[in-house]
Amino acid sequence: MLLLDRKSGAWRDSWFDQLPELLRDGDVLVLNDSRVIPARLFGVRPGSTGKVEVLLTEEAGEWEWRALTRPARRMAVGQELTFAAPGGGEPLQATVVAEGEFGERLLRFTPVDDFFARLELLGHVPLPPYIRRQDQPLDRERYQTVFARQRGSVAAPTAGLHFTPEILERIRARGVVITYLTLHVGLGTFQPVRVPDVSEIRLHTEPYSLPAETAEEVNRALLEGRRIVAGGTTTVRALEHCAQIGRMEPHTGTTNIFLYPSSRLNVVGALLTNFHLPQSTLLMLVSAFAGKDQTLAAYRHAVEAGYRFFSYGDCMFIA
Q1: pTM for the predicted model, two decimal places
Q2: Which has the closest alpha carbon to 40: 98, 134, 125?
Q3: Does the pLDDT value for residue 305 go beyond 90?
Q4: Using an 8 Å Cβ cutoff, are 314 and 161 in contact?
C-alpha cells in the first residue's frame, strides 16, 4: 500500500495491514456492500447456429436489463435470445426491446420464479478482460468483498477486496465507525476518456442506495468535524453525488457524477483506492481528491517500485 499525503505530496511505502493504525478514533469508514452477480451469459438466437454473449450492466426495471451484447450488429430490436445451462434445466429467454445511446441493448426477460437464482445457474462471473481465462467456481467468492451483500454489480468495488474480517475488527477496535452504502458497479465506473474536453464527458448512470444508518453517521461526523474515509472510488461517487444534490438522507437513486481535477469534494476526507488505468475517469477522480500533479507523481513512484495495478492489485491510502 502506498501512502500519499495530499497536502505535502509526500509518499511512503507501507502494507495494507497497517491501515488500522492510520485511521483515527472517530473516523467513519464507508464501504460499498454491492455484490457481483454472474452477469455474463452465453446463448443463441433461436433459428440460428450463431452464439451470442451478453453482459448485463444494470437492472432497468421489472424483468428489464441494460446489457452489452456480442455480436452487437446482430442484436436488432425484436431479436429473441435463449440462454440455457450446459447440463439442461429451464433456460432464460429474453428479447431485445431497445438500443441505447452508448451501444448497449435493453433486454426484456421472460418472467421466471426467481431470476437471480436462475442467473446463478446460467451466468458466469464477469472477470476483468485482462484476466485471460474462463471463470471458475472459486471466482464467485474470490471476486467479492467479504462484506458484499446487495446483488447488482458487474464488477467488484476493488478497494474493498483488500479487507478481511480480522482487519475490519482491528479497525473497529481503533474507535472507527464502519458503515455501508450500495453503488452497483456498472459501465459508468470504468468508462474511458474519449474526448479532449472533460466537460463533454457523460458517464453511464449507476444505481445507489444510501441507508439511514450511513446517512446518520456521515451527517454526525461532518457536523462534529470528524473524518469520512471512503473505501474506494465508488463510495466517493455515491457520497459526493448525495452531497451535490443536497440529499444526505436515506434514499435510492442513480448517479452519473464525474469528478475531475477541478471538481470540489465536500464529504470525503481520506480515500483508499486501487491503482487505475491512464486516461481513465477513475484516475481523474483520484486526481480530484489528491491533486493532479501529486497523484501522477505518486503513480510514477508506484510504477518504478513495482506496485501491481488493476482489480487484484495493490492500493493507495490518501489522506
Answers
A1: 0.92
A2: 125
A3: yes
A4: no
